[in-house]
């Protein structure tokens, strides 16, 4: 069921935000090397193992997708094409 799909970290990194927000529902932001950040929003659920300050390995489950998923990549506040990260 695609509406129940697991969302995984695309790279190793450290969780800098993991919480529900008014506009983006459940959001996880992961900080990676070279000033890179990945942002996962509109998650149906954040995995209970995901906490601010925790280091995650590439492929770690960060949550469950709802009807939609917003995935953004930034490097030093500039947006990067997220398709470069998805393989």
UniProtKB/TrEMBL annotation:
GO MF, any single term: metalloendopeptidase activity
SUPFAM superfamilies in alphabetical order: Duplicated hybrid motif
Domain (M23ase beta-sheet core): residue spans on this chain: 3-82
Stored Gene3D superfamilies: Glucose Permease (Domain IIA)
Pfam families: Peptidase_M23 (PF01551)
Cross-referenced PANTHER family: MUREIN HYDROLASE ACTIVATOR ENVC (PTHR21666:SF270), PEPTIDASE-RELATED (PTHR21666)
Name by which UniProt lists this protein: Peptidase M23
Organism (species): Sulfuricurvum kujiense
């Amino acid at each position: 069921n695609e509406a129940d799909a697991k969302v995984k970290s695309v790279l190793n990194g450290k969780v800098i935000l993991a919480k529900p927000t008014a506009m983006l529902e459940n959001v996880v932001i992961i900080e990676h090397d070279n000033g890179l950040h990945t942002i996962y929003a509109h998650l149906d659920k954040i995995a209970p193992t995901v906490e601010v300050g925790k280091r995650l390995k590439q492929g770690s489950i960060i949550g469950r997708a709802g009807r939609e998923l917003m995935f953004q990549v930034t490097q030093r506040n500039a947006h990067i094409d997220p398709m470069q990260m998805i393989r």
